[in-house]
């Protein structure tokens, strides 16, 4: 018997052993509870009722028992997608999203999503089964042997392993606190196979579980920091507020809106902060972004970091003469992490605390005598906005054949306007950038996308999680390349009969579909796919609806029907294969060879 077979048999027999008696008919017999039940009860006790995962040794029985215990178990086709689902469930609900995987390869498949959660500050817990510690540590070649805890550590906000059933309560509590408190992030929880069948005395076992009290304690900002920030804002001639996805996560929507409206300061939402105030709000400066960034003199960042998405707060985007120069702006930064300030440029007024408490404190400090920003600043922005919106309207009204990104997205724009409750998932390059600028959002946390890393592959995992945790219609606008990373989860969407409408912006490739092999050889260019691929048949293969559309009218009808029927739908929208640009809007980040 080889090692794998032996281990499998052992694991199987552990699972097949009669479940320890937890009710105990014989008054004299000791009542026991096992590791499986303790894990489940610890999660339930803390309100974690949905698991995104993929079964196998050693967690197959755990998935069964989770379902039997009344929890929602969403079983995926690849752990990475389950992990992305868990990460965005955390963002949407302020509860850690839980992803459950098998050991080594399953763990590694989930790890990308865990790192993504940490980078994006989403609360998530990756629970992976693991092999036998003694064998792993001596590197003796166990089934799926890997020192998972060590590998997870640098990519997670925290990582824990539980070896004894009586420590399960502490392990789960620590994972929840680490994921949610302060700046949220991804937490790894390692549960070795041997833990699950371990038993302890039932009463003591239950006593050992912890219901976490106040997992994300409010952090009240210091009054002097709030005053410093308000004084700086008052001194501004051309103030600007930037809302990041931290502001969206905070669920302090009414206070954020009040702050913007009371101060009268123009604001820019980062991608996932769109809809915190409706994008049609008159103070939105989105349509004048390239004007306000270099011109602003005081910028208040709320839950937004000065990372690459904001050109690190310096360089030509901010009006500096050189690519690394300082544009002269003064910054207020509202953030939960005291370490965030000065990460890229000087922050003159850091306000450290949770976004809700900080914004409430700022609001309290704005009195009736607050002066709205100078009218020349507001009118200069309004003028740019007007011009850019008119230019955009002209492009959107065109009806070329094949469809352009813009003529197709004009339809999506109308559909989202008519269905503001729907969650919009978005990934791709051109498919991402055009959607972000064309499709207005009207409610908070309705736009979820590639996030801090600009990652491809979140599409179907995010769609599934959004449908499951919000119960709302989901519209996923996907580049054809982006879709490919998680396309097999269309089966999952159909299996759980989720109201997801996937729209593929099919331009036959990565960025464009018209590249050729420069050698004239047989292989296609690395940037293109099979021409006129019929992606809609994938959804049909699993019992969903597939539609192939070539005009905006066809697209509109198909989307309206998808939303009316709530059936899993995939619309393959044929887009001009020459309509995109390399890397979408971030071409400048792409190093290119001197000679092509
Ligand atoms: C995990 C990952 N792999 C690769 C990339 C590089 N990348 C950026 S956008 C993109 C795909 C763009 O093509 P598509 O989704 O079809 O969008 P289009 O521009 O054609 O609309 C790729 C592969 C990435 N961002 N993430
Ligand atoms: Mg494409």
Write the layout of secondary structure elements.
Layout: H1 3-16, E1 32-34, H2 35-45, E2 50-53, H3 60-68, E3 72-75, H4 79-93, E4 97-101, H5 104-120, E5 124-130, H6 133-137, H7 148-152, E6 158-161, H8 168-180, E7 186-192, E8 199-201, H9 202-207, H10 223-234, E9 239-243, H11 245-249, H12 253-263, E10 267-269, H13 289-295, E11 298-302, E12 330-335, E13 349-352, H14 355-364, H15 375-397, H16 405-418, E14 423-427, H17 430-438, E15 447-449, H18 459-470, E16 474-479, H19 480-484, H20 490-495, E17 500-506, H21 536-541, E18 545-549, H22 552-565, E19 569-574
Parallel strand pairs: 2-3, 2-4, 4-5, 5-7, 6-7, 9-10, 9-11, 11-12, 12-13, 14-15, 14-16, 16-17, 17-19, 18-19
Antiparallel strand pairs: 1-8
Helix pairs in contact: 2-8, 4-5, 4-18, 12-14, 16-17, 16-22
The structure holds thiamine diphosphate and magnesium ion.
